[in-house]
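::Amino acid chain::
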Amino acid sequence: MHRQFRILVVDDQPDILAVLRAILTAEGFDVVTAQDALAGLRAAYQVHPDAILLDVMMPNVDGFEACRRLREMTEVPIIFVTAKGTIEDIVRGLSLGADDYLVKPFERSELVSRLVTSLRRAGERTGEGGDFIFPAASIMLDCDRHELVIGKQTVYLTPKEFEVLRLLVRHAGKVLSTDAILTRVWGPEWIGEPDLVKQYIYRLRRKIEEDPDSPHYLHTVRGGGYYFDAEDLL
């Protein structure tokens, strides 16, 4: 089932790379490894992995900075696999656009389960052209028309509205900071302009929420950012 997926593993410890390679290869994944963040960035550009496992504590460029740079070139799932497991570390990693955060030591089954879940969420089953995203049974994003379909209702979205919604949907249930959203949708030069994100969330709520003042799908975390709740759509 997993042999079609290529996984890039970035860690500066050869023994950890060997363990992760053995686990993933046994599960049928195609594994590519890199021993530092810069090599990982080059590999991501060259081999186009389906998902990336990323350590935090690496020399020169750490995993957090690597994640930020990776998110400028790819939307594939990124999972931190690291010994740094404080709440602050986890929040920082997710706010930079990571899909999940796994703290060492971990169980083999947990690693595989989280990886498979992230691949599914990323929409690997979206069709030949990758033109549709199905985050839940009752919702579809049409990437060609920039339309959102909820049940039988079709909603037209502007290009930027669609990009914001697609980003939140791809990370359903995960809180994305305003700076993370700004970086991914408008570019890093827009960091520090939270009102821009607030305006687009307001516009999206008016289009997709039954009651924009009491949203079911697009939620605000005070001081933290926004998240999309797919559970309400099931």
Remarks:
- The chain has two domains: 6-121, 132-233.
